[in-house]
Each structure stands twice: as structure tokens, then as C-alpha cells.
């Protein structure tokens, strides 16, 4: 699988450092900070994957082009690793459900119904209440929306409505700016990844739900089919009806 090949550790540290135009000691520092997670050979040699190279280039972009401080970079890369882990979890979940389907076909068991969507995404708070909940001015929330740091819903009358997840995002923005000193460019990168992570999680849940629904439908149809014994019995009854009323052929005498 293409995704698996990107995570395959192949580059030693000297080659990885050359590919991203960094000193090997910088890569070791980033590893200690948890910004990258290289693999290890059997001899404990660091080995970097294509995905690690992408992460290192992203770190360089954040620090050199956007001026994001190390605390902001740590937040970005933590979210990026969560996205990578989410992709792995998605693939593992697909394999698990396929295996469950095979077992249920053998056992003639229906799957359990899937879970409903997260109620935290339901838009309920008007902007004045949302601003009060996160201790911000409503104008600040409008600014963050223009920067696409948050994405509130809209009522039928176009009134902004914020969900519990929006409130969580606003509190996270305040933590990044006030506690960690991350600049707005860094916050934008972090929140973009947060939205991507939420979207990936929703996509995963939606695909799992579709698979569960498909399993339920298939199993319901399969259970409605007659068993091989019933099919044989029906076939036998039909042949008996067809022969009924037909004259019995006379036996020919042997000469």
C-alpha cells in the first residue's frame, strides 16, 4: 500500500539531513522534542521514512518562512502525528470490520448498530454566549472566523451558531496565544491541522457507519435465503409434483 511505503524507514540520518538541508544534530534535537519519530534498525540505527522527510520540511517552513516558535511547531507536529495515527487507525478499523464480516457470515450473526455522530458538533450558541464562555470579545470571534481558525454554523436566518467543538477550539487558540506565545501564523497552521484531524475522525466514523450498515443489509439478506437443506427439500417437492399423474412406463420383458 502507498501509505505504508511512505512510512517505511529507509534513510540513515546523514542522508535524511542532506535531503532536508539540515545538520544531523538538528534532527536529533527534533527527535528529542518529539517533532519527528524516526524508526530504528535492529542495530538501533536511526532510519527516516519519506513521511519523516515531509515532516522535517514542514518544520523548516514553519520556523524559517512563518517565524513560528518552537512551542508552536511542537503543537503543529503533535497534530500532524495524530493525523498520521488516525490514518493508521482507519486502515486497521477497515481490516477489523472485514474480519468481523467474515466471522459473522460463518456464525449467521448480525452486527451491532453503529454509533451516532458526535453531539459536540451541533451548533447551539449564539456569538454573545460563545464569547462569554471563552472570555473573549465577540469581535475577536469574528476575526478568528475570517482567518478560518473556527468555522461556526449558521441558522436559517444566517445567525452564527457555535458548537461545543467550536468552544474547545477557541479555548485552544487562547491557550496557544496567551500561554505558549504562538504567533497568528502558527495558530493558523495548528488550527488547520485540528480541523483536518476532526474531519479525518468524522470521515473515519462515517466510513465505519457505512460499513456497519452494509454488513447489516448483507446479513439480513443472507439470513432470508433458504438453507441448503430447505432448498433441497423444495427441489424434491417440485419434482414429485411434476411426476404426479404421469403414467408409469411398463417394464419390458427380457428375451
Write a structural description:
This is Heat shock protein transcriptional repressor HspR, fused homodimer type. Pfam families: MerR_1. Keywords: Coiled coil, DNA-binding, Stress response. InterPro entries: DNA-bd_dom_put_sf (IPR009061), MerR-type_HTH_dom (IPR000551), MerR_fam (IPR047057). Residues 229-239 have a biased composition (Low complexity). It is a single chain. Helix 5 (70-107) packs parallel to helix 9 (184-224). The chain is 65% helix and 3% strand. Strand 3 and strand 4 form a beta hairpin. With 255 residues, the chain is mainly alpha-helical. The N and C termini lie far apart (76 Å). It has 2 domains: 1-65, Multidrug-efflux Transporter Regulator, Chain: A, Domain 2 (Orthogonal Bundle); 68-223, Multidrug-efflux Transporter Regulator, Chain: A, Domain 2 (Orthogonal Bundle). The chain has a two-stranded antiparallel ribbon. It has helices spanning 2-6, 13-19, 24-32, 50-65, 70-107, 127-134, 138-146, 164-179, 184-224, 228-243; strands at residues 39-40, 46-47, 153-154, 160-161. The chain has 10 helices and 4 strands.
Amino acid at each position: 500500500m502507498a501509505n505504508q511505503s511512505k512510512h517505511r524507514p529507509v534513510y540513515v540520518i546523514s542522508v535524511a539531513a542532506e535531503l532536508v538541508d539540515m545538520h544531523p544534530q538538528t534532527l536529533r534535537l527534533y527527535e528529542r522534542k518529539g517533532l519527528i519519530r524516526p524508526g530504528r534498525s535492529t542495530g538501533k540505527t536511526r532510519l527516516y521514512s519519506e513521511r519523516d522527510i515531509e515532516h522535517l520540511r514542514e518544520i523548516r517552513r514553519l520556523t524559517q518562512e512563518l517565524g513560528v516558535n518552537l512551542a508552536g511547531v511542537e503543537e503543529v507536529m503533535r497534530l500532524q502525528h495524530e493525523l498520521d495515527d488516525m490514518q493508521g487507525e482507519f486502515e486497521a478499523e477497515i481490516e477489523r470490520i472485514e474480519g468481523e464480516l467474515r466471522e459473522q457470515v460463518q456464525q449467521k450473526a448480525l452486527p451491532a448498530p453503529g454509533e451516532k455522530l458526535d453531539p459536540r458538533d451541533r451548533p447551539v450558541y449564539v456569538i454573545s454566549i460563545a464569547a462569554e464562555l471563552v472570555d473573549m470579545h465577540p469581535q475577536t470571534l469574528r476575526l478568528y472566523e475570517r482567518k478560518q481558525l473556527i468555522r461556526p454554523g449558521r441558522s436559517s436566518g444566517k445567525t452564527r451558531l457555535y458548537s461545543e467543538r467550536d468552544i474547545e477550539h477557541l479555548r485552544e487558540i487562547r491557550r496557544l496565544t496567551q500561554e505558549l506565545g504562538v504567533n497568528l501564523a502558527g495558530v493558523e497552521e495548528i488550527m488547520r491541522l485540528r480541523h483536518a484531524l476532526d474531519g479525518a475522525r468524522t470521515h473515519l466514523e462515517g466510513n465505519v457507519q457505512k460499513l456497519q450498515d452494509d454488513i447489516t443489509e448483507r446479513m439480513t439478506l443472507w439470513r432470508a435465503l433458504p438453507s441448503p437443506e430447505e432448498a433441497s427439500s423444495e427441489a424434491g417437492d417440485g419434482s414429485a409434483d411434476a411426476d404426479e399423474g404421469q403414467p408409469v412406463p411398463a417394464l419390458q420383458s427380457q428375451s
